[in-house]
Specification:
Elements lengths: L1 E8 L2 E13 L3 E10 L2 E9 L4 E12 H5 L7 E14 L3 H6 L2 E13 L4 H9 L6 H8 L5 E3 L2 E8 L2 E11 L2 E10 L4 E8 L11
Antiparallel strand pairs: 1-2, 2-3, 3-4, 4-5, 5-6, 6-7, 7-8, 7-9, 9-10, 10-11, 11-12
Helix pairs in contact: 3-4
Length: 207
């Protein structure tokens, strides 16, 4: 067993004190259990083969999204989430590992709030447009509220280092939106689209 005193990221303490179990016979087996990391319980298991193929599974329950985002000084989301990741790759260099990363990520959100972005207000104001000057009012109001996301399970594919979210319906406040997107992990490039769940063509011009 290996005891690690603490984990520090960007001068911020993430976790203090945990045991890491390593088993080496034909392959290297890693078994890690953490409690109270971003208020969550985390389990991580991995098998590293001699040819450097690696398989791993990560399960986390009750992640405090706001505490996690504080690592990067990002404070526009709050709430909790569970996640489950099953993936495999080549454990060589960072770029090779990411380019060969495949699997599935499931994110189950609870009580998530997008801060300083009121999508329901945006929708109502767009539908009430009578003249061009009303567009100014829309831009002033959209950032003066929050958006409540109803609890949702997101199924995200991991294909050659790209996180891919297929079109997914999400309920917000008293309405709904459609989310779709991808994220290239190595290049940190994100491509997303958000549309209101409606047949009104005017709404699609604003998201």
């Amino acid at each position: 067993n290996i005891f690690i005193n603490e984990i520090v990221f960007k001068n911020k303490q993430i976790y203090k004190g945990f045991d890491l179990k390593l088993y080496t016979k034909k392959d290297i087996n890693i078994d890690l259990n953490l409690k109270n990391i971003f208020d969550s319980k985390l389990k991580f298991k991995s098998v590293i083969k001699k040819n450097k193929d690696v398989e791993f599974k990560l399960v986390a329950k009750g992640i405090n999204i706001e505490k996690f985002n504080n690592l990067n000084s990002y404070n526009y989301l709050s709430g909790y989430s569970d996640l489950s990741l099953n993936a495999y790759s080549k454990l060589i260099k960072k770029d090779i590992f990411l380019k060969n990363l495949n699997g599935e990520l499931i994110v189950d959100t609870q009580n998530v709030i997008i801060k300083n972005l009121d999508l329901q207000n945006l929708k109502s104001n767009i539908l009430a447009i009578d003249e061009v000057n009303d567009l100014v009012q829309i831009s002033e109001n959209i950032f003066n509220g929050n958006t409540q996301l109803m609890d949702k399970k997101f199924k995200i594919k991991l294909v050659k280092g790209n996180l891919i979210l297929p079109e997914t319906n999400v309920k917000i406040n008293n309405g709904g939106i459609k989310l779709k997107g991808s994220y290239e992990i190595l290049k940190k490039y994100i491509d997303t689209s958000i549309n209101f769940d409606t047949d009104n063509k005017l709404l699609s011009l604003f998201l």
